[in-house]
Amino acid sequence: MTHAPARRRAAVWLTALLAALSLVAGWTVATAERAAALDPFTGYLMAHFTGESSNNGEQIYLAHSDNGLTWTDLNDSGIVLRSDIGTGGVRDPALVRSPDGDRYWIIATDLCIGCGTSWSTAINNGSRNLVVWESTDLVNWSDPWLLNVAGAIPDGRNAWAPEAIWNPATGDYVLYWATNVPQNGATKHRIYYARTSDFRSITTPRPYITPPGSDEIIDTQIIEVPNIVGGYRYYRANVTARHITVDASNSILGSWTNLGNLSHLNISNGAISGSTVVEGPMWMQFNGRDEWAMWLDQFATGRGYMPITSTNLGNVENFQRASGYSLGANRKRHGSILNLTQAEENRVLGRWGSTASSRVQSYNFQDRYWRHADYQARIDANVSPAQDAQWRIVPGLAGTGTVSFRSVNFPGHYLRHENYELVLEEDDGSAQFRADASFRAVDGLASPEWTSYQSYNFPDRYIRHYAYRLRIDTIGDATARADATFRVVD
Fold first, then answer.
1. Residues in the chain, pLDDT under 70
2. Is the peptide bond before 385 cis (omega within 30 degrees of 0)?
3. Four-way CATH pick for 23-352: 2.60.40.1890, 2.115.10.20, 3.40.50.720, 3.30.479.30
4. Per CATH, domain 357-489 is 2.80.10.50
5. Which residues neighbour 479 within 8 Å (Cβ) at sequence distance 6 or greater?
6. What backbone phi and psi angles, to 5 degrees, belong to 481?
7. pLDDT tens-digit map of 62-110
């Protein structure tokens, strides 16, 4: 599969020759389950995709909020994680936290309409897999893997809109998703579930929600309510029979009671003429209080998510439309929201939050600064446009003790070395990219008042300029030490 980096490579090859990279779905919110094991929540993290105009839209994006209503795109609105397996794209990401808060997963639909897959193929002969990432800190993620969830369902034709929730009754996760299945005279999407402890293997899938007749269900999401507000421990939002319905239960795998729908707000999935047509209910509890928001995607008008709020989930009449919200620059499609502790929030914002821009000045050519030109990195004077020489110096993609250089005007692109040359390339989410794009800042090799940058995965090499081009080299003489010494200028 060709990703955005191919564009940069094409430019490099050309330069070298001339010189000699809506699904109607559901969302999981890893809510405050077992919250007593965690520090107080202080912020919110949303994972989402943006659309299917290209395969870049069907990847993982993140946004942050302090209050649960006003959202800011992270990573300069760029891709945070990219899937290069399965179909080459992902939709409907679900954020899952372990009960003790020491492990996280993102599970997502393996589907890429922007790559050329038709909706007919996706419905009738789509991927039976989910795409999964794992992390211990929310910022360093594993390479993705495929989890086959629908292959064991007789004539199961796809796997969409995954969700997962910790089940204290069984000590593992209930993983649930939609699969299109011909059964009992009706071919339609039904919700199946399986149990898992690691999102690498699952129990045999079983039917979970099967609407009557020809009615189907794709979107559903469960939230746990620790204080049993409204009389139930769990609440489930669904898109069924063209309504947004709410169910309640005290057991995830037990019986559920239907509490009604949102018709009193003139909100539906098309059942009410002239109503606000929505899909993709996404739960969120406001930090520090018994109040919840259900975010609904106004897909029919392309206006994005809107929140409705409630202080009593046991009574659907208690829901009301909210105002004074903002979703940021990116269009946010089919995602999930995770309440963040202060430590989690610090890590996430430290990696992907906005950072002041800087220039990097050469020690021995002090009128020259690092810049990108045709995706090559070099030092130049009088850079135009000026943003080509501006960088956000962020915590290193490879981890503690390193830094990475993110482009200001090419969001999601970083300096990395490739064949020892420094190039500008979009983060593909791989461990190789993280290593190639990370450097250790050390005392300047030519002057301790300045700085040199040691390669993370080639520690005998440092960033230096040679014929004005930036590369990583071993340093053996005074000229090389001067070439490898720089200063950060605001």
1. 1-37, 54-55, 354-355, 411
2. yes
3. 2.115.10.20
4. yes
5. none
6. -65, -40
7. 999 999 999 989 987 888 998 989 999 999 999 999 999 999 999 999 9
**Ramachandran bin of 57, using left for φ above 0, alpha for ψ from -120 to 50, beta for the remaining angles:** alpha
User: Of 124, 126, 147, whose CA–CA distance to 205 is shortest?
Assistant: 147
d(CA 310, CA 302): 25
The Cα 224–Cα 233 span in angstroms is: 6
Strands 104-110 and 90-97: antiparallel
Beta bridge partners of 405: 393
Beta-ladder partners of 70: 326
For the chain, give every domain's residue range.
Answer: 23-352, 357-489
Cα→Cα distances 280→239, 240, 391, Å: 7, 11, 37
Tokens of 184: 């009992």
Q: In angstroms, rounded to a whole number, what is the distance separating the alpha carbons of residues 130 and 161?
A: 9
Structure token pair of residue 95: 């954020």
The tokens describing 143, both together, are 């390479």
